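Q: Fold this one first, please.
A: Sequence and structure below.
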Amino acid sequence: MVARIAVAPDVFLWRECFSPLQQKALLDDVLARLEQAPLYRPVMPGNAKPFSVEESNFGVLGWVSDKAGYRYQAGHPVTGAPWPAIPDALLTLWKKINDVPPPECCLVNLYRPGAKMGLHQDRDEKDTSAAVIGVSLGDEALFRLGGTVRGGKTLSVPLASGDVIAFGGTARLAYHGIDRIRPGTTRLVPGGGRLSLTLRRVRG
């Protein structure tokens, strides 16, 4: 792997961890799996406001959001089909960073121009022993990282295509989000935008 950069306590960044050729190969694998589990637009619990991002999942469990709340489930909420397996390239990456059993979920977020993700915690998982790992493909994005309680100072980290970020340990429940993407900074993703692939352990 490329050199690891410490951006905050227990938060690490690998710049262009995936080379341009590896990014293309991973993207092709992801797009093939999305044919089995199409992207859809989740809604917020309660008010049913649509997310600005489109989502899907790979793995034995997928994270979903609807009027009833946030949860993990074994099937696609639209098609009912099981989620496709997590790509091998991502499982190999996981082993290099986390010395624990494989991830059970790979959340796929597609950010088209104007899409963003507000500050939130990844706290729907029973197993928080492993770091959350995020892989960026496509347009550059501005990742915002805060502490484990809402409010206070935040750190902005630009993420480019092929970058990998991981947060675990004392930062496992840190608030984080995507402020914006920079449309047109790459031509990798068909139709433009950014794909975010987030790997997590779920069950204790």
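Q: Good. Now the second chain.
A: Here it is, same layout.
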Amino acid sequence: MVVADVTEATVAELNTKSPEELFRWSLEAHGGHAGILTSFQDTGCVMIDLMQKYAPGVRVMTVDTLRLPKETYALMDKIEARYGIEIERFLPQPAKIKKMVNQHGEYLFFDTKAKQEYCCQVRKVEPNSRALKSLEVWFTGLRRDQSEFRVDTPKAQLVAPDSHKLIKIAPLVDWTQKDVDDYMAEHDVPKNALYDQGYTSIGCAICTTPTLPNEDRRAGRWRWFNYLDDDNKECGIHVGGSGI
């Protein structure tokens, strides 16, 4: 099946399937053009474990911003060893980083939200777009309980980032944090060590901080902009349906 043949009826049917069924379907229908694109947060690690059980062969991909915490790099190595897979890593373009830093400085993301979003565009969104160009089915770790911005996220949808048509699937979209934690404990799924240090959402090292019990799970992202009263704590990958 090619994405061009996918109808809204097909998408509606996908929205009724379990995570296991979605992984099996993606491998059978799209083979090497199905992939998990993950930042190795807890939901992404659960997806990798499910994939290995029900659809080994689905690709595992990530964007390495060159600014990830050492704990995230250690987790990548652990997952490759545990599951016998090779993670495909997509990096930002050196020329674009050099231009950005020369114009705005190394820590431009502290200045304004616009500059923070520019940094994310260079380090995350553009490499993510390159990764997506090789996919027809894109598995993402979005969940509705992660933030107010994500409460209406569908399990499956057709998207067209950069005019490249894809089926975007969030197989665990209706799972709760307890569901994720319970699965990881029961199946001994490797997890990022930062979760034990109070982190609830993990991105780049400088732009991610721990959260307090009464805070939104993504409050630790770009914490210096919390005063803006803007709950759209997104890097740009999942904005406008173009979405990781």
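Q: Anything worth noting on the second one?
A: Strands lie at 34-37, 59-63, 88-90, 137-139, 156-159, 166-169.
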